[in-house]
Amino acid sequence: MKKYIKSAILGAAAVLLVGSYYIGSANVERTLPQFVLKHLEGNPKEAAHITLEGELYFNTRTRFSSAVREIKIEDERTTYWQKSATEPFSSSPKIAELKDQYRGFMRGKSSYDNNFYEDQTELLYAESSDNYSAGDEGSYLTIGMLNKKSGEKKEFHVPLSKPDRDSYVMVENVQRANGYIQVIIQENVHGEASKQSIRVLKIDPKSKEITDEQTLSAVDTSDQKSSINSNMTPNQNPIGSHPYELLYVETSEYDEKNGTTISEERTSYMVYNANTGKLDKIKSAIAKKQMRPKLIQGSILYAVQSEKDGLKVQPYDLQANKDLAGYTVNWDEEVDNSTSALEIRDGKLIVYSLDNLISDGAVNSKPQQVLVADVKTGQTLYKGEILMKGSLEPGDYQVNINELLYK
Amino acid sequence: MIEVQEIKKKYGRKRVLDGVSFTAEKGEITCLIGINGSGKTTILKSIMGLTPYRGTVLIDGKPLTHHTYEKLTFIPDAITMLANMQIGDAMDFMKDFYQSWNEARAEELLGFFKLKKEDRISDLSKGNTAKANLLLGLALDADYLLMDEPFSGIDIFSREQIADVFTSHLIENRGVIITTHEINEIEQLIDKAVLLDDGKVLKAFSTEEMRLTEGKSVVDVMREVYQA
Amino acid sequence: MKFLKLLNFELNRFSKFYYLLVAAIVLIQLSLAAYIVNDYMKMIKASLRSGQTMPDFLESNGKISILNVTETDLFMVSVVLGVLVLGIYLFFIWYRDWFGKHTFIYRLLTLPASRMNMYFAKAAAILLMIFGLLAVQVFLLHVIALIIETWVPGNYRSEINFYHLLEASQLILVLPHSFIGLLCSYGAGLVVLFTLFTSILLERSYRLRGVILGGIYALIAILVFTIPLWYNILFKQAVSLYPDEERMAMFATGLAVVIGSILLSRYLLKHKITV
For residue C104, is it within any domain? Predict the structure, then answer.
């Protein structure tokens, strides 16, 4: 047995030391910060519907990227996990659901809501070849169709005639309207004479051809001083049926040295109806006051503007083309997708902060807040703030929230 | 019995063995005789499964498997133990892996060859190396021993010691196949001679029968066959 | 049992070089840690003498952590040294038995045990030595952390947990953060090990032709193993895999290469190997 002692020591050392490293590594997650939602106003039971998701970074200042965890904060619990390197960069819960239900059809398809349309009978998909190498085929749209009842799948390419080779097309939305597949694309032409346009392509699924093309917005983006963009307002349910789109042009001037915005101007507010094909100017206070269109739910657009007494919300009926009763909610930050975000779920307006919960190892002096309000009246149903439980385990962390899920 | 049937072997384009057949019985010493390059070592390696070949080799009527190595041992012209090993380590190695290792016989051979367990293999003279090599093979209770040039390049005293082994109880009842071109050393000891040339068997005969019937020694037959 | 005896034998054979290798790695890493910590302390003392405040010092120099040691080129040299030596030994473990005056391969091939015992013993010896080095590295990381904790005042040390720090280290290449990551990395390493062993045996069976055959075999093995990663470049119409399917596919192709390598090696050792 003496002869085997060296080998036994080597084997034992390998198992014990390497094993203990991984046991330690698994157990250390308990030292990560824990957060709770502290009730400030309204019905505390609302907190049970709220889940905030974001990321934790360890600020290690190395050549390698910082170690990252995904973080999920629920009413009483904080969960951390690591995303696998092979998971897609961005995948909404709806896309994840579609992948589970229609695994075959969803195989190899993008993970963005904008590329899909779903109703009771079918699932549609549209993707621009500019997002991957088109090879000899030139630029085209890939259209996928799934009959949910029969399971029949179809896929075909629709060639895109691009006026300029040096342009990039991306799909903004897919809808079914009047028997056609309507694909809204944004095309950016680069170079000295840069342009941006948003167009609707009507595709006949039988002939597999573009039967009509309509420009909804076109801007010259070659101004060096300003950033000019045609914007489409996001829909609360991008994959579902939503015939109305709200477009506007935003011109921003930046102070490059300080990284601040000098001025912001919104113009050319237009509403597009996919069923009629009409493009109309909106008759709304939104345009006069240059409010920021945030979200469309059904046929109602919600535009916002930060004012001294709170966040002004202006709902606008896109179908009737008229303003509804506006209101102010108890929120004092800009809702611009960098400091705060807005969602609408189950007849409730939800606003939440996107700022860092922790940066450089210290809790943000101004706690992040969550507001749930009635979408029609703006009445506060719940207001809470995110607090750290217990004392902070010191560390160079950065924790930021980037999404709220309301169940 | 070891049966070698029509074995053929090529190294590249050169045919080394061209249909060699012979048998080696238990209790007999069979000597493969031939000049360098006649295929003697290749035959032993083929029997031991150390080189691929075409043809058939049977040990007691069965093809070679790893179990056969308990009763078939190869003593090549160089020692097959690590240079930094002591003889004692080599003996321990054999004891660890071979059920047929006979510790008592190994100790006997150690004394017979005047070797010590502490002797390092790399420090041994050529003669002592050959003796240590022989010790490791003979200490197994193997039915068959294959020896490749056991006398090659060693001093006369060591050669005599090794030759003594062939007349001792250590070889009794075992089948031995030996290759050599030092035929004078063991002519009196061998029972069968197989004369090889160019990968072929020129003549195979019983030495005693040859002596009794034709009055010829092995050397006489060699002269006849190789000069013809 | 014969496998364990052979494994023990292989480990003992290389033990002197292995101890030297471990000693070299320990020496490099601990000297580097002592140097870096000492240097940092000198900087603190100099800053205090010059009247610089601690916050200002930390703003310019940051807090010290184990990453100050692990992210240096010299540290990686010590890690690469281990990888390189064992990588070379992967070939040497076979060729040393063939070459030299005392051709030990005769002995190994004529042991009364399946030749695959020898094959697996060599593979297991390499693996055990790799994990041994990994164990040494884990031990050294704790020692380096202890050196920093002992010599550097608390305010100047990063408070991020040891394991979280190492996640951002270049060491994750050899010491993945998660156990699953370890299994995947070293699983792939196992595929490489058995592929190379088979290539070596092809060379030992067919000599000059065997070198070409060994090279071709290694190329085919790598291509088969990585099929899930490149198949849809070649076959554009082929079905796309989900990430979990890709992982399972790679496990399957890896297993196929390992089994194929072992079976081919078995055939070569039994029928084609030549001494």
Answer: no
- Are A97 and A405 in contact by the 8 Å Cβ rule? The answer is no
| Cα A393 to Cα C164: distance, rounded to the nearest angstrom | 13
CATH number for position B164: 3.40.50.300
Distances (CA, A) of A76 to A30, A79, A385, A388: 15, 10, 13, 11
Best-predicted range by mean pLDDT among A191-195, A294-298, A401-405? A294-298
- Taking residues A276-297, report their average pLDDT: 87
Residue B78 touches chain C, beta carbons under 8 Å:
yes
User: What is the span of the domain harbouring residue C208?
Assistant: 178-275
Tokens encoding A165: 């080779």
Helix (H) or strand (E) holding C219, with range, is: helix C179-225
pLDDT, one tens digit per residue, over A224-271 is 667 778 788 888 888 998 889 888 888 888 777 777 777 888 888 888
Q: Do A66 and C168 touch (CB under 8 A)?
A: yes
Residue A202, both tokens: 């009507």
Chain C, window 104-143: residues with a beta carbon less than 8 angstroms from a chain B beta carbon: 104, 106-107, 109-115
Of C65, C170, C239, the CB nearest to A64: C170
For residue C227, the SS3 value is helix
- Which tokens go with A190? 């680069």
Residue A136 backbone dihedrals phi, psi, to 5 degrees: -75, -10
Structural domain of B14: 2-79+142-227
Residues C162 and C208 in one domain: no
Mean pLDDT computed over C175-191: 93
pLDDT on residue A283? 82
Look up residue C255 and give its two tokens. 């297993």
Angle at A47 between CA A46 and CA A50, to 5 degrees: 105
Give the CA count within 13 Å in the CB-facing half-sphere of A388.
18
d(CA A197, CA A229): 9
Please provide the DSSP assignment of chain B as one string. -EEEEEEEEEETTEEEEEEEEEEE-TT-EEEEE--TTSSHHHHHHHHHTSS--EEEEEETTB---GGGGGTEEEE-SS--S-TT-BHHHHHHHHHHH-TTB-HHHHHHHHHHTT--TT-BGGGS-HHHHHHHHHHHHHTB--SEEEEE-TTTT--HHHHHHHHHHHTSTTTTT-EEEEEES-HHHHTTT-SEEEEEETTEEEEEEEHHHHHHHH---HHHHHHHHHH-
Nearest to A18 among C65, C138, C165 (CB): C138
Which band of pLDDT confidence, cut at 50, 70 and 90, is reported for residue A90?
low
- Take residue C110 and report the two structure tokens written for it: 């004529």
Q: Tokens for B217?
A: 């020694």
List the one residue out of C118, C109, C170 whose CA is nearest residue C6.
C118
Q: At C155, phi and psi to the nearest 5?
A: -65, -20
